[in-house]
Amino acid sequence: MKDYDVIVVGGGPAGVGAAYTAAGCGAKTLLLERAGRLGGTAVQSVVGPLMGGVESLVVDTVLKRLGGHCIDFRRVDVELYDLLRERGVEILLHAPVSGVLTAGNRVQGVEAECREGKRAFHARCVIDCTGDGEVAFRAGVPFEIGRDGDGLMQPVSIMYLIAGVDPARRFTCGSEQEARVVKVNGRTWEEVVLEAQAAGRLPETVSVVRLYAAVRDDENIINATQVNYIDGCSSADLTRAEIEGRRQAFQIVDFLRESLPGYENAFLSQMPAAVGVRETRRFVGVARLEKADCIAGRVFDDAVVHRACFSIDIHNPAGGGQAAGRDEHEVGTAERAKPYDIPYGVLIPRRIDGLLFAGRCISASHEALASCRVMCIAMALGAGGGAAAAYAAKHGCELRTVPVSEIQPLLFQRKSSEKL
To answer: Which of 382, 388, 383 has its CA nearest to residue 130?
Structure first.
């Protein structure tokens, strides 16, 4: 058994941000990751480019190390490992958390099912960056799931790489809005896709095919598959999603070969290790991020994330396309958000001490999560949690009493005019 100041559970963007920041503040930090690679869905699920605008010193540093938002899925995990080890983070892969060590209402560490057997790790502070909130769930923190009314969550997707594209004719289209503008052989890409969907050449849930630029000019990242009515915390549901999503992927590649000039020789070059999940549990915190905060661009005095910016990006939980801006039960266009702050309270459970959560399991509404769940914002959330945990460990205070103004200079630079 080993003792730490901070244990970060989950090695995705939020976990990287948390561990990097905590160790940089002098905390003895351990990062536990259940898989064999760091990077979370950016690596396991081939989700890229890294999306979301945010003013974050930590995010800027990590992106500079990775070469920007468009990452190389083949090597980013090694780059992240080196970055964290240089910072002094102890890293343990193949270590899924299976239990939480508690005393009363305080989390004191975690148990992990390592290859050599169950191991216990103690810490002053634990940060749950698992996406699904595996630590918070086991600690008994209350949570919400899905949208109001029917509890449906956003669909899951298999994202993948294709190669064999003619570099001179590589086509990109990043959103539904762009698909209504860009043209292929004199027709909008939306018209081409919807015609193929109606004819059965595409799955009925695939009404938009997004093609992002990859690091090689003969490759695209494809974001198009969609499997609805999936609970990302159910192994049975995820099994169905993995198989159905991969079948859709091959069908979409066939469609691209037939429909896009320069794609006649395209082939699926990298299939993900796991389906990408957009939302599951949202844990109840001291504060809650709301859609209105994102739309209005609200500023918080106790912000740990500054000027986050991404649309209210709700993939339709009950069909294809985008769930609409003002009415999430309609299909339409994502509603725009203004750059907004995220308060520290969304990382703190109400009644449990010694624990923070960061990434897509924070305290937020279904709609607000649709904006802040993306990777650069998740990394900034992790950085906020890491700075707070390191401060609490150093000063011997409770996480909920950390003076946020003391850690903000480590996270971002706020202009004097940006006040409530």
So the answer is: 382
Backbone CA torsion sign across 173, 192, 163, 242: positive
Nearest to 161 by CA among 213, 120, 226, 208: 213
State how beta strands 340-343 and 183-184 pair. Answer: unpaired
Burial of residue 74 (CB within 10 Å: 0-12, 13-18, 19+) is exposed
Measure the N-to-C terminal CA separation of the chain; round to a whole number of Å. 46
Please check whether residue 263 is in contact with residue 185, taking contact to mean a CB–CB distance below 8 angstroms. Answer: no
**φ, ψ for residue 113, nearest 5 deg:** -90, 80
Cα–Cα–Cα angle for 310, 157, 171, rounded to 5 degrees:
70
Distances (CA, A) of 199 to 18, 101, 207: 47, 55, 12
Which residue(s) pair with 316 in the sheet? none
Q: Is the peptide bond before 49 cis (omega within 30 degrees of 0)?
A: yes
Q: Which amino acid is at 113?
A: E
Domain 2-146+280-411 grouped into CATH 3.50.50.60: yes
From CA 403, how far away is CA 388, in angstroms rounded? 9
Backbone angles phi, psi at 341, to 5 degrees: -95, 160
Q: List the beta bridge partners of residue 322.
A: 315
The 10s digit of each residue's pLDDT in 85-135 is 999 999 999 999 999 999 999 999 999 999 999 999 999 999 999 999 999
The answer to whether the CB of 320 falls within 8 A of the CB of 361 is no
Distance CA 348, CA 356 (A): 5
Q: How far is CA 141 from CA 125, 219, 358, 362, in A?
A: 16, 43, 14, 11
Asked whether the CA dihedral 119, 132, 32, 122 is positive or negative, the reply is negative
104 Cβ neighbours under 8 A, 6+ residues apart: none
Task: Give the DSSP per-residue string, 171-214.
Answer: --B-SHHHHTT-EETTEEHHHHHHHHHHTTSS-TT----EEEE-
pLDDT digits (tens, 9 = 90+) for 148-191: 999 999 999 999 999 999 999 999 999 888 999 999 999 999 99
Domain boundaries, the chain: 2-146+280-411, 160-270
The answer to whether 383 touches 58, Cβ cutoff 8 Å, is: yes
